[in-house]
C-alpha cells in the first residue's frame, strides 16, 4: 500500500478479514472497496465534533467562598470549610479519619509517615506514576522498589509485587493509574500474608470503584490529589484518609508538624502540609460535581473500548468488568508487529483525524529518570546508602513491561463534556488508522 492509501482489492480484503462487519464499514470510504484515506494524507477527518469544557468553577464553590469570607479565621483546625469538605468526602468512602493537606504529594508523604516507614524500609510501588507517589518514601529515608505492571491495565502486577518482597519490605503503594482500580484483592492478600501496609494512591481515581466498593477502602491508608489536572481541584491540595485504628489517628499530626492538636503535644516529626480554608472551600464545592464528572467519564471510556474492540493491532485500556474506571486518561496500546507503522506514526495519524491524543505518558519510568539513576536525592550521597541500610541501585532495576507500555501506548483524551457522538467518531478514527496500517 502506497503512502496515499491505495491498495488493490485483494490485499484490502485480506487486511480487513479479521475486522468483522463493523470494522470493514469503518475502514471503507462511502464509495467502493478502498480503505478510507487518512486525514494525514489529505483525507477527510474522522472526528468532526469538538467539545468545549464548561467552566469548572461556579455556584457551588462561590457558596462556600462567600461563607468563608464571613469567618474570622482561615485556619484548618475546626474550620467550617475543612469540616464541610471532610463531611462530603466521608460520604463517598466512609473513612473514619480524614486529613486535608496541601497536595497529593503531601498526602502520600503523610501516609508513609503515619505508616511508620523508617530508614531502609522498602516500599514497593509502580514505575509509571507521578513522582509525587515516591517523594515521601525517600523523605522518610525509605527505599522505593519498583515492580512491573500489567500489560493492559498499566497497574501493579501482583505477581511482580510478590517477586520484589524482601525481609526489608514494609509497604506497598498501589497507584490506580488513569483512574483504573488496581487488583486490590490480590494486593491485599499479598500484604496480609507478608505483614505489609497497603497504601492507595487515588490521585487519578476520584470516584472510581473496585468491585463495587469506593476506591481507597481496601488499603490501610489512601491518598488523593486536588491538583489542577485532576477530576476535581482547588488548584493544589490533597486528602489522606484511613479506617485503620493505629495509622488513622496519626495522619492529622503527620500533616501538621507532628502536632497532635487534641493532646497539644508534638508526638511525631513531620513538616507543615496543612490545607487552608480557602482551598477547602473550593474543594468542598467541587465535591458536589464529582459524581457527574466521573459517571460521564466512566461511561464514555467504556463506550470507546466497546467500539474499538477487534481493531487490528490495538489493545484497549483493560478494565475489570466489575470495576468503575474513571478514565483520568484513556490509554491504548499499539502493536507494531500487527501494523505497518510505529507508535509515533500511529499517534500522528490519529491526531490528524481530529482525536486529542499523545504518545505514552511520562518520558521514562520514574526510576530511569536522572535523579534516581544518580541516587541524588539530598544534594549529596543518599543517606540510607551511606549508612549501609540499602544496596539499591536504580541503574539495575528492570521493569520491562512498564518500559514497553511507555513506548507503545497512545493516550486518548476523554472529558466529561464530550458528546457520545464524539466518542463514536474517535472510535471510528482509531479503527480507520488501524485498518489502514494493518499488515
Ligand atoms: C497528581 C498525582 C500525584 C501528586 O499529586 P500533587 O497534588 O500534584 O502533588 C501523585 N500520584 C499520582 C498518581 C498523581 O497523578
CATH architecture heading of the domain at 59-286: 3-Layer(aba) Sandwich
Structural class: alpha/beta
Give the rounded overall mean pLDDT: 93
CATH topology of the domain at 59-286: Aspartate Aminotransferase, domain 2
CATH H-level homologous superfamily name of the domain at 59-286: Type I PLP-dependent aspartate aminotransferase-like (Major domain)
Strand content: 5-15%
Tell me about this structure.
- With 439 residues, this protein is of the alpha/beta class.
- The protein has a domain at 59-286: 3-Layer(aba) Sandwich (Aspartate Aminotransferase, domain 2).
- It contains 16 helices and 15 strands.
- The protein has helices at residues 9-15, 20-27, 59-69, 80-93, 104-114, 132-139, 158-163, 184-194, 250-254, 277-287, 290-308, 343-352, 370-373, 383-386, 400-408, 420-437; strands at residues 97-101, 122-125, 143-146, 169-175, 197-201, 209-210, 213-214, 221-225, 238-242, 259-260, 265-266, 314-315, 330-334, 357-359, 409-412.
- The strands form four sheets. It has a seven-stranded mixed beta sheet, sandwiched between helices. A four-stranded antiparallel beta sheet has the order 12-13-15-14.
- Helix 5 packs parallel to helix 6 (132-139).
- It is globular.
- 50% of the residues are buried.
- Bound molecules: pyridoxal-5'-phosphate.
Amino acid at each position: 500500500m502506497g503512502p496515499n492509501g491505495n491498495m488493490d482489492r485483494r490485499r484490502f480484503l485480506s487486511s480487513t478479514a479479521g475486522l468483522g462487519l463493523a470494522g470493514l464499514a469503518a475502514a471503507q470510504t462511502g464509495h467502493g472497496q478502498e480503505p478510507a484515506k487518512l486525514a494525514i494524507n489529505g483525507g477527510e477527518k474522522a472526528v468532526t465534533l469538538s467539545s468545549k469544557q464548561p467552566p469548572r468553577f461556579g455556584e457551588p464553590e462561590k457558596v462556600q467562598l462567600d461563607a468563608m469570607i464571613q469567618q474570622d479565621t482561615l485556619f484548618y483546625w475546626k474550620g467550617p470549610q475543612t469540616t464541610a469538605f471532610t463531611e462530603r468526602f466521608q460520604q463517598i468512602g466512609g473513612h473514619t479519619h480524614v486529613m486535608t493537606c496541601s497536595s497529593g504529594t503531601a498526602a502520600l508523604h503523610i501516609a508513609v509517615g503515619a505508616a511508620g516507614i523508617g530508614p531502609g524500609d522498602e516500599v514497593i510501588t509502580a514505575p509509571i506514576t507521578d513522582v509525587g507517589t515516591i517523594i515521601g518514601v525517600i523523605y522518610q529515608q525509605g527505599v522505593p522498589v519498583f515492580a512491573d505492571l500489567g500489560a493492559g491495565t498499566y497497574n501493579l502486577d501482583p505477581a511482580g509485587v510478590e517477586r520484589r518482597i524482601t525481609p526489608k519490605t514494609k509497604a506497598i503503594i498501589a497507584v490506580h493509574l488513569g483512574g483504573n482500580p488496581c487488583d486490590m484483592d490480590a494486593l491485599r492478600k499479598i500484604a496480609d500474608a507478608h505483614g505489609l501496609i497497603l497504601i492507595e494512591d487515588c490521585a487519578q481515581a476520584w470516584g472510581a470503584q473496585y468491585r463495587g466498593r469506593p476506591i481507597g477502602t481496601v488499603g490501610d491508608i489512601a491518598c488523593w490529589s486536588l491538583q489542577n489536572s485532576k477530576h476535581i481541584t482547588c488548584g493544589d491540595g490533597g486528602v489522606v484518609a484511613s479506617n485503620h485504628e493505629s495509622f488513622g489517628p496519626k495522619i492529622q499530626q503527620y500533616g501538621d508538624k507532628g502536632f497532635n492538636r487534641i493532646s497539644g503535644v508534638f508526638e511525631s516529626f513531620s513538616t507543615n502540609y496543612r490545607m487552608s480554608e480557602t482551598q477547602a472551600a473550593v474543594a468542598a464545592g467541587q465535591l458536589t460535581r464529582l459524581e457527574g464528572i466521573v459517571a460521564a467519564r466512566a461511561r464514555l471510556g467504556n463506550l470507546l473500548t466497546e467500539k474499538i474492540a477487534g481493531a487490528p493491532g490495538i489493545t484497549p485500556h483493560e478494565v475489570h468488568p466489575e470495576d468503575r474506571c474513571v478514565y483520568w486518561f484513556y490509554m491504548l496500546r499499539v502493536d507494531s508487529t500487527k501494523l505497518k507503522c510505529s507508535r509515533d506514526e500511529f499517534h500522528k495519524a490519529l491526531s490528524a483525524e481530529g482525536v486529542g491524543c499523545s504518545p505514552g505518558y511520562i518520558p521514562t519510568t520514574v526510576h530511569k529518570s536522572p535523579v534516581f539513576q544518580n541516587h541524588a536525592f539530598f544534594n549529596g550521597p543518599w543517606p540510607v546508602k551511606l549508612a549501609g541500610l540499602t544496596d539499591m541501585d536504580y541503574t539495575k532495576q528492570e521493569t520491562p513491561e512498564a518500559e514497553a507500555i511507555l513506548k507503545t501506548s497512545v493516550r486518548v483524551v476523554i472529558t466529561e463534556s464530550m458528546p457520545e457522538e464524539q466518542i463514536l467518531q474517535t472510535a471510528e478514527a482509531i479503527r480507520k488508522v488501524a485498518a489502514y496500517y494493518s499488515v
